[in-house]
Amino acid sequence: MANTAVSAPPVAPSAPFQKVATAVVLAWLVPGAGHFFLKRNIRGAILSGSVVVLFAFGLLMRGAMFEWLWSSTDMLTTLIYCGGYIANNAAGIPYYLATWMGYSQPDVAGHVHDYGTKFLAGAGLLNVLAMVDAYEIAAGEKD
User: Fold this and answer.
1) Cα–Cα distance, 26 to 14 (Å, whole number)
2) CA distance linking residue 65 with residue 85, whole number of Å
């Protein structure tokens, strides 16, 4: 028996970190901008329109923005408020523009307000998916 060395398959070169980081940061700040940066214009337009329209509907329904609430007494409430706060921040510029312009709705009872709150958080979560998609495209894991 001859000793033969088994060679590993060649590893594809990874994408430059700067390109990946730029795409993800742009995708977070301006919905769809990461895809425009990566020359995926149609996908960027669809994602940008979806996040902005979802966020605008949440504002029009007078949804409440989540605040960072760290309460050691009730873990479920802490999880909901902290997760909602992170989801709101993930919407990027639309969230920051709304808060800088003074948008502040109290959390009131009512179906429309409740749906508005969920739309605002949903816009941020959709933008997180857009950020992951931009990362995968920039890293070369997806076409």
Assistant:
1) 20
2) 7
Percent of the chain with pLDDT over 70: 89
Predicted model pTM:
0.83
Digit-coded pLDDT (tens) for 49-61: 999 999 999 999 9
Q: Find out whether 102 and 23 touch, Cβ atoms under 8 Å.
A: no
Q: Tell me the three state secondary structure of residue 139.
A: coil
CA angle 50–62–28, rounded 5-degree value = 35
Annotated domain spans of the chain: 17-138
Asked if 130 and 47 touch (Cβ cutoff 8 Å), the reply is yes
Residue 141 DSSP class: S
Please tell me the number of Cα atoms within 13 Å of 10 on its side-chain side: 2
